[in-house]
Write a structure and sequence with these properties.
184 residues, Glutaredoxin, 6 helices
Length: 184
Amino acid sequence: MAVSPPVCDFGAAWHDFTLPGTDGQQYTLADVAGPRGTLVMFICNHCPYVQSIIDRIVRDARLMQDAGVGVVAISANDVAEYPQDGPEQMAAEARRHGFVFPYLYDETQQVARAYGAECTPDFFGYNADGRLQYRGRFDASTRMAGPGDARRELLEAMLQIAETGEGPEHQIPSMGCSIKWKSA
């Protein structure tokens, strides 16, 4: 069942973290933050919504980084129930798609909860002051990739944030698989 997160809570603060990456390094928010903005995205390996756009995410992440935007991906799914989302599989996924950003594992799910992540993919675009300016979709893709010439909504928003510090007023929520929370 598809899940859509709420609309952007403009100005909400980001949340610090220390998480292991697929490269064996530990990363904090300060390590991944960019001088002109930061994109924190929650993704996972098995979700068809993520898989339909993963190569586009990598393509656009390069352009964001060139504009001074830091980019990081976090997977928080319960790997007991979804072993394909485990750290070894994440490392293979990052290699397979040539990730140009850290891919971090949130085993405790505390980071995903702090951010209020609800689905994969879920995008949180912050300005240089660490204030939320974008919580929308990547583009018009769903479980299937949208047209090749689809408006690049996330990229446009992050470039605008890098330039002005503010995100677009109109945002269409992302859609994807629910975060696979651990049983209480």
